[in-house]
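Input for the complex:
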Amino acid sequence: MPNESLKEYVISMRRYFHENPELSFQEASTISTIRKELEGMGLEVHEVKEGGLYADIQGMDGGKSVALRADMDGLPITEDTNLPFRSKNHGVMHACGHDAHVAMLLGVAKRALEMKSKFRGRIRLLFQVAEERPPGGAVSLIRAGALKGMDYVLGQHVISSFEAGTVATFPREAMANADEFRIRIIGKGGHGSAPHETIDALVVAAQFVTAAQAIVSRMIDPFLPSVVTFGTFNSGFRYNVIAPSADLTGTVRTFHREVQEKIRSELENVLKNICAAYGAEYQYEYSEGYPTVINTQEISEIVDSVAEEHLGKGKVLHPNPSMGGEDFAYYLHEIPGTFYFLGVGNAAKGITSPQHSPTYTVDEDTLEKGVEIMLGSALRLLS
Amino acid sequence: MPNESLKEYVISMRRYFHENPELSFQEASTISTIRKELEGMGLEVHEVKEGGLYADIQGMDGGKSVALRADMDGLPITEDTNLPFRSKNHGVMHACGHDAHVAMLLGVAKRALEMKSKFRGRIRLLFQVAEERPPGGAVSLIRAGALKGMDYVLGQHVISSFEAGTVATFPREAMANADEFRIRIIGKGGHGSAPHETIDALVVAAQFVTAAQAIVSRMIDPFLPSVVTFGTFNSGFRYNVIAPSADLTGTVRTFHREVQEKIRSELENVLKNICAAYGAEYQYEYSEGYPTVINTQEISEIVDSVAEEHLGKGKVLHPNPSMGGEDFAYYLHEIPGTFYFLGVGNAAKGITSPQHSPTYTVDEDTLEKGVEIMLGSALRLLS
Amino acid sequence: MPNESLKEYVISMRRYFHENPELSFQEASTISTIRKELEGMGLEVHEVKEGGLYADIQGMDGGKSVALRADMDGLPITEDTNLPFRSKNHGVMHACGHDAHVAMLLGVAKRALEMKSKFRGRIRLLFQVAEERPPGGAVSLIRAGALKGMDYVLGQHVISSFEAGTVATFPREAMANADEFRIRIIGKGGHGSAPHETIDALVVAAQFVTAAQAIVSRMIDPFLPSVVTFGTFNSGFRYNVIAPSADLTGTVRTFHREVQEKIRSELENVLKNICAAYGAEYQYEYSEGYPTVINTQEISEIVDSVAEEHLGKGKVLHPNPSMGGEDFAYYLHEIPGTFYFLGVGNAAKGITSPQHSPTYTVDEDTLEKGVEIMLGSALRLLS
Amino acid sequence: MPNESLKEYVISMRRYFHENPELSFQEASTISTIRKELEGMGLEVHEVKEGGLYADIQGMDGGKSVALRADMDGLPITEDTNLPFRSKNHGVMHACGHDAHVAMLLGVAKRALEMKSKFRGRIRLLFQVAEERPPGGAVSLIRAGALKGMDYVLGQHVISSFEAGTVATFPREAMANADEFRIRIIGKGGHGSAPHETIDALVVAAQFVTAAQAIVSRMIDPFLPSVVTFGTFNSGFRYNVIAPSADLTGTVRTFHREVQEKIRSELENVLKNICAAYGAEYQYEYSEGYPTVINTQEISEIVDSVAEEHLGKGKVLHPNPSMGGEDFAYYLHEIPGTFYFLGVGNAAKGITSPQHSPTYTVDEDTLEKGVEIMLGSALRLLS
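Predicted:
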């Protein structure tokens, strides 16, 4: 029962990676495990510094070539599950399912090798580091030639907000532009009992976060989706000392260049003036992140039809684009392709935690379907 | 010129302690240095666990007894000065002048010993740990008998908001009640791009800090002084992950029991309801800190007259009580006494940073006066 | 030159109505003027209490029937233009262009009568009151039978954010669901100098408006367009008296039932808890307003092609749906039809003020095109 | 029983004035009633435009002269009581007890006339208009010579926060400096559904009120009492139109010139920058109001002893100064005197509403004591 063993292989690999997560750009052990697996399958592995590794499976002569990508990094989140294979690396967690991505792509490799006399063309496996941390690993892989000779590229991402047994695709826009900002508000510290001798940076920062809510609610066209999230707020060092400064970081998600630019400048304008209202100073750094992921419509439709074959009618969804950013955008700047979601939520099993939450997990029973859909779509593109 | 050498001694001791600050309840090296100095003067030292140490200087028979107190702990502040004797203990700093307190009390010891045949009664030197961290060291010293047999107690604190060459005294209320609170706001974390699937604890906490300003501005009688300071705000762990929780600490300063109780309950009421407005939960811990420091008026007036002799007319100030808390309050619960300030600011020398700031320092030229006023007041009380 | 005289007629009618605006449900004089015009053309007029009036133009036998609707009410806005025909009714203004709607529909009547031997079927002219004030006039017109026997309905609305010479159509969703809310926050008034004896409703209301920004920015899916606008805020009666209450009104615009319901309940939840944070009480009334305007796609496409004939290629736009509400929604609940926009802005002429602003106006030179497109689309539907 | 009839007279006058309140500078009917009463007593009345009226009661030759002042204006508050003599002038109310002031001073007149052969010196009765509205009536009275020849001046004010049967006096500072500000925030109006095309003045104003709470809570020395009250907030004209502007008024109460100046400038700084944060403009007018009321300590002590005779031991209170402003300050700039409070609250009778509230009233049974204390203090000063 080759399928049963494939399923077991994918699940056991997923658990291994889940138990041993690594942060972006620090995936040494993950890379070495993948390399061992691929070499065990007889594949030649190319490693790319700050990019990851890739390997080719050559079918029969002729045909097209398609690159399949899995990202591999974990997140700086402390896992809060009771899974037997929960993270052994305290403070790091596969809370975005990249463990499943690597496991499924290894499954694709295994299966494709079994059938390599049955297709024409070449499948390239891209195992990429650091999707979670711009500049990301895609840029290095591309620069090192990992797309050279490739006609198409596919990316599959697990997602718990869709039920296992579904796939979600996007004709064109798939993922948002995702920027990062870092802010320091500089007041004047002092004794906690004498606020009038200080400029209380903590209070100024709280006012700023509150005031900035009006950017999305009042300044942006309600039809142009946008998100401004403050991810961290750190201020002060002791309960009875007024904080001399406050540090904030956050992310801006948009789909339109003019919205991105408006938020970038309005955020600074609100910051500047809230600081001035209280006599504080500020620093503002804004890094433009991954651009919008824009799929090729024809290729999205190929995934639709392959997924429907495997999952049944009504199981291919077309939701709104995601606000999340993805460096898969860079591959699509180079060659046609598509990026889509594999549903891994399962309410009946209690698998409902959102991506990036400390209790995130995936319905493992669906991973085999992920292998089949990815490989099936690739084969369709090769021919 | 014995005075010149006393001044040199006090300044060199102050610099030594400044360079080697220790946190509250961790003053091992400071204690051992003080012990060495006192034993070097031939004094018998009593050490009290979590209290500090004390030693007596016995004058002629008869007379009263007076305890003089110096606190010795530093703060968890990273010094930001270019002083040649700046802190060698990174992240710890004598930013409240306790280094000067210890040095001056050692100076008092030296001088008192020189003249112990000239006064009747006993002077007890109290070197106390952990004034900056409730429950403080005073309680342990008292429990260990450090006030036994004492008639009066004096406490002198350097303060940079008054110029060198001045003393500030308080007939009765000197320092506020100082409480501490610790708050956790618990939301629901998630991906930075999908706020609607989360409860953004960081935004809730910012709203709370903003909303809580109205406690002092709108809910408390403007004639009853009060301060609510949020000292720390820590939320989130990554710029693109919505924070599942936020931690806040702070202090409440008041002079009246009913104001203290009103703030304690209104703060929780604002917290509870701001959390409920966004679906968040909360934890609220409130520790009542040092009680109000209430001086004995007659003893305050003795310090006034001694200080005027040393500093001249118009140099003894009577400001409003300070909002700062002090465990000196506990000594005054036991025996009569007074707590007063020695001005150590000096605008002409650029010494203007407030207490607890990373650039805090003191005008060393005034420390000798501090020795004289403390000793002079003690001698007046003995007779 | 019949066209020239039609243009003059429409413009002169528009100016007359502009100069004599009336508020919703108070359009007595407007109705009587329209009646006089229609009767002057020989038409039989049906008047409907709280609905408006309608009249039929019967072409040749056979054919379909189409209703054309113009709304006629002004707004409680004080006009701030220097137009020679500016409002003579102080505090009331045609700031949404309904003056132009009535004028154009009268123009359609004139032109259709001239050619009534050239088309088959019936055109019904609907002059409706009170579009600006729910429950609106459409409901009464429909109840009175104004759609009886009609196959289709068309509504044309002028809009200054699109340039003259363009038309904007919507295949399906055209206008948002538009709800109204009324809030009273009840504190405890008192002397302006003693806030601690009061519950300051004005400050609570300001906090509430600030806190409510987070509903759109943090609680609603960024892909589901929504707007929460506070239109009025009235609190207090004297500068030195603390306000006992605050009154707020506003509107919620959405396209999805679940978003509408979430905002309705979250708005009350924020209100309830912000009030509780300060000890205030509240009243909350929420009236569901006009439902979403949903067009018939085939009819929208007919307007597209007629408009393109009159305006040229590239002049038919397909913007996002509008957030504004419209009781045209009720007609579309009964029969197929479409609602579209006629651009009347003109940057070169300085005509740029948004709808509902005190300086709003329209480029009159485009009104004749409006007549032609409306009539042309009707004729296409009749055949 | 002459006292019984005096009590009845004072209560009946108080009820008459309560039923017929007039706004500041519009006290025509009140003045004419007072004039009638005084002339009925045989006194010669001097009327002062925008000041009020005054009359002298001449005792025996010699002695000093003392002016007694009652203010007479009502407030623009709609009474919300069920008193049989509640305001007949809708929207105007004696919510600060000036009706009782006039009645008591008429009572003093009656009683003083009865005994004018028993005291030396002159009592002048000052009935002043417009205490509630700066510039107030005191300035005009003084300019017209109403203090000419006077040695002392007394002002008695009823107050419901103290129980009937008590008097509250102030050795020196009695009432705060009371300033007024008027603010307009100018945004850009528009349709309620398109916030991004507008600058929402209502939201900006709400943010400003919220942000301004930090002035008192964080910027002012907690020992220097201060109040910033926003009394009115009016913005917008329709629920579905975004407000183009917002109007705010309020009052600032302080006791120290430097606090007054700091608040005046910080308020504008917060306003300016909150507006700039959202692209709005502003207007800011600040009128310095009545200065601090500073009593003459010796005269306050005379009132103390007279009040104690009439009310008993422990019935003379020495509370903190009041935050309310008073143009009685101007009299005290000219001649020595004192301003004090007569308790008229009565919890047992349910008389607890604060000054300026729509349910305000006074315990009438105490008004006779007010006559006696005022007259008794005056007689003591004359001798």
